[in-house]
């Protein structure tokens, strides 16, 4: 009896077409995607996408930040001044014993200066202005920047055969103390800071320049070991 009933039901049900089967399958998949009910949170697709995107963003910005910091570090490391020597920094200028009073200026080409030991008795126009001590005169002419040589026996208008600093470019002329006496220069020769240690060793700070003026001789530095 039972077999007869089953056979009758199957025969009574219309057979599903292939198209209906596909629709049914697609509808079934949509239902699964649309609801996360019954799906463990760790396997939920939107959460996984979000965390992966976040990870990629964080990695990108972190990498960019590290690269920028590295570039800034390299830039600062390259341009940071270390132990600057030569012109622009400290330059050794020998010992005070090397400079007899009233002697000729000693030219230091590395530091671009002359060192003179002023003779207070030399009160002529090309002299010390009555001052004693060491001066470091920048050899750059205050007019247009030519290097000013020391010219013993130079001829200047109104003077003959005396010792001057005299610029070869436009004739600006300066006393042994760097005071302008003639020419187009707007001021006297500039001076650099001098340091002398207890043993009489001289260091000229070539980065510490003071504009020339009539007070140049007053900037002379004295020391107990300096020849007088
Ligand atoms: S540059 Fe020295 S006088 Fe002009």
Sum up the structure in keywords.
alpha+beta; Rieske Iron-sulfur Protein; 2 domains; 4-stranded antiparallel sheet; 3-stranded antiparallel sheet; 10 strands; disordered N terminus
Could you explain the architecture of this structure?
The chain has helices at 2-12, 18-34, 45-79, and strands at 90-95, 106-108, 113-118, 133-138, 150-156, 159-166, 173-174, 180-182, 191-196, 201-210. It folds into two domains: 38-80; 90-219, Rieske Iron-sulfur Protein (3-layer Sandwich), CATH 2.102.10. It is 28% helix and 25% strand. The protein is an alpha+beta fold and 228 residues long. The longest helix has 35 residues, at 45-79. FE2/S2 (inorganic) cluster is lined by residues 141, 143-144, 146, 167, 169-172, 183-185.
Overall average pLDDT: 84
- Any idea what the CATH superfamily of the largest domain is called? Rieske [2Fe-2S] iron-sulphur domain
Number of domains: 2
Strand order of the largest sheet: 5-6-7-8
Tell me briefly what this model is:
The chain has 228 residues and is of the alpha+beta class.
Secondary structure layout plus pairing:
Layout: H1 2-12, H2 18-34, H3 45-79, E1 90-95, E2 106-108, E3 113-118, E4 133-138, E5 150-156, E6 159-166, E7 173-174, E8 180-182, E9 191-196, E10 201-210
Antiparallel strand pairs: 1-10, 2-3, 3-4, 5-6, 6-7, 7-8, 9-10
The protein binds FE2/S2 (inorganic) cluster.
């Amino acid at each position: 009896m039972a077999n007869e009933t089953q056979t009758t039901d199957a025969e009574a049900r219309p057979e599903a077409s292939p198209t209906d089967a596909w629709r049914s399958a697609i509808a079934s998949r949509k239902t699964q995607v649309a609801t996360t009910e019954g799906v463990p949170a760790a396997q939920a697709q939107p959460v996984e996408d979000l965390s992966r995107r976040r990870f990629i963003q964080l990695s990108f910005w972190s990498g960019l930040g590290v690269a920028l910091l590295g570039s800034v570090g390299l830039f600062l490391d390259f341009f940071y001044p270390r132990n600057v020597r030569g012109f622009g920094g400290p330059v050794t200028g020998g010992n005070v014993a090397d400079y007899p009073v009233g002697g000729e200026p000693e030219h230091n080409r590395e530091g671009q200066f002359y060192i003179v030991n002023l003779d207070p008795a030399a009160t002529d126009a090309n002299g010390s202005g009555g001052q004693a001590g060491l001066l470091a005169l920048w050899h750059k002419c205050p007019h247009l920047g030519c290097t000013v040589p020391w010219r013993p026996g130079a001829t200047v208008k109104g003077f003959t055969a005396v010792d001057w600093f005299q610029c070869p470019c436009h004739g600006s002329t300066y006393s042994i103390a760097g005071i302008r006496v003639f020419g187009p220069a707007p001021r006297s020769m500039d001076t650099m800071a001098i340091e002398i240690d207890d043993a009489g060793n001289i260091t000229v700070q070539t980065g510490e320049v003071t504009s020339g003026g009539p007070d140049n001789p007053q900037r002379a530095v004295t020391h107990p070991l300096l020849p007088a």
